[in-house]
Every structure is written in C-alpha cells, then in structure tokens.
Amino acid sequence: MGIVERCGGCVPKKAREVPFADRGAVGDDDGTVTIEDTDTASTGEPALVIVGTRQYEGNVGARSIQFRVELTKAAATPIVASYAITGGTCAVPSGIVKGVARTLTFAPGALAKSIDVGVTQDTLAEPDCTIEITITAPGTPVRTATATATVVDDD
What is the CA radius of gyration of the chain? Predict the structure, then answer.
C-alpha cells in the first residue's frame, strides 16, 4: 500500500483520489488511495475516523488484524464509540457476533485506539477476504464511519 498522510490542504468535505503504484511488501498491485479531509476546524469538535488495513493471513495459529480508530483532536472528556462487524467476506471470528456492538473508550487527551479482530492462519489456498467494521458515537461527529480490512491469502 502507498504512504498516506493527513491532508491539511484538501478542499473541505471533499475526497481526492490519488493513483499510486504499490512497491511495498504487500504486493505489486497498482491502486487508488482516497484522501479525505477529516479536519473539524470549523466546529472545533473532535471527530472519529476509522481506518482499514491489509495484512497477510499467515500459516499457523492465530493473529489479529487491526483497525485504527482516531480522533481528529483530543477531547477534554471521555468519548465512547460503539463498533460492530457489519460486513465482509471473511468468516466471523469465534466469540464475535456480526452486527453486535462492542465499545471503545477514548480517555481525555487520547488520540488513537485499535480494534483487533482475530484471523485464523492456515495453509489452505483460498481467495483474499474482507472484514468491514462500522463505528458510531452519540454526541461525537464521525467523519469516516466504516472501514474495510483485507486479509490476503499467502498460501
């Protein structure tokens, strides 16, 4: 995947698509990165953003794939967000029910948390699969509510 940085000069409330060539360890695919303005300078409120990822499956045991949840600025009071697996093509991990919400709490001053979703490693050749998570937070703006992680089969 390409390198993505916060877009301080983007046009507010618009996304920009930037073509890139993948030269990293994940693969040799070309693709497009969408850079979305997540600043909340006009309101001064912190807003939530969830970021997906792409990770190799692996061969033995279990591992986690991480979704990063960020606040655009630190909050003075705790912020409680709910999240749930809402879609995707991967088998739902043991102990997690699709669509059932769990919580993530940001302490005052915190800027980032992660959501770990278990992935079972194996040596079976199978298609890549995805996991989609959606976040909500009553009373807190959510700039990016849904993110997708891709589990890349490496067998």
Answer: 17
